[in-house]
Specification:
The chain has helices spanning 80-92, 150-159, and strands spanning 14-19, 22-27, 35-36, 41-50, 53-59, 70-73, 95-107, 112-122, 131-137. The protein is mainly beta. Strands 4, 5, 6, 7, 8 and 9 form a six-stranded mixed beta sheet that branches. The protein is elongated, with a radius of gyration of 19 Å. It starts with 13 loop residues before the first strand and ends in a 5-residue tail after the last helix.
Length: 164
């Protein structure tokens, strides 16, 4: 994720400078005082159970063997639970019920904060515009990946006594 180069308030150049105990991007224009904090973006994710399987998805443009959880950016005015149920409808055409929070995970490489839920879904899968494919995986065959939402998969499996 690329940092901005110009101030959103006055369009002055941003420069690295000590601010509030950390090196941050600060507006160099006299009298502006804008500080770019670069806070993480909230992302919601779901371990979707559907007909006894966990549904993994592949976004358009991903390599053919890459599959992951249903995810999306949290939108203004929605709770994380509402956000993941919206993503479930948009990406898979399913309705669902949140069973519980799996966990909250920092994804530093993408400057994201992932809020992951376990969701049980109903309906017939219809892929949304962002997806290329889906894959049903029995929970006992599910393998976590070492980054991003893979942390949630690992914890969810461990809680069920399914050693990853």
């Amino acid at each position: 994720m690329r940092a901005p180069r110009f101030c959103v308030q006055c369009a002055g150049p941003l420069v690295e400078k000590e601010a509030e105990g950390r090196t941050r991007l600060v507006c160099s224009a006299e009298g502006c005082g804008f500080i770019h904090y670069g806070n993480p973006t909230p992302v919601v994710a779901a371990i979707v159970e559907h007909q006894g399987n966990v549904i993994l998805v592949r976004n358009k443009g991903w390599p053919e063997k890459w599959f992951g959880l249903v995810t999306g950016f949290l939108e203004a005015g929605e709770t994380p639970e509402d956000g993941i149920l919206r993503e479930l409808r948009e990406e898979l055409g399913l309705t669902g019920k949140v069973q519980g929070l799996v966990g909250v995970y920092g994804f530093v490489e993408r400057n994201e904060l992932i809020v992951a839920y376990h969701v049980v879904a109903d309906g017939e899968i219809v892929l949304g515009d962002e997806l290329e494919a889906f894959k049903p995986v029995p929970p006992e065959k599910l393998k976590p990946w070492p980054f991003g939402t893979g942390q949630a998969v690992r914890e969810w499996l461990e809680r069920r006594g399914l050693s990853p």
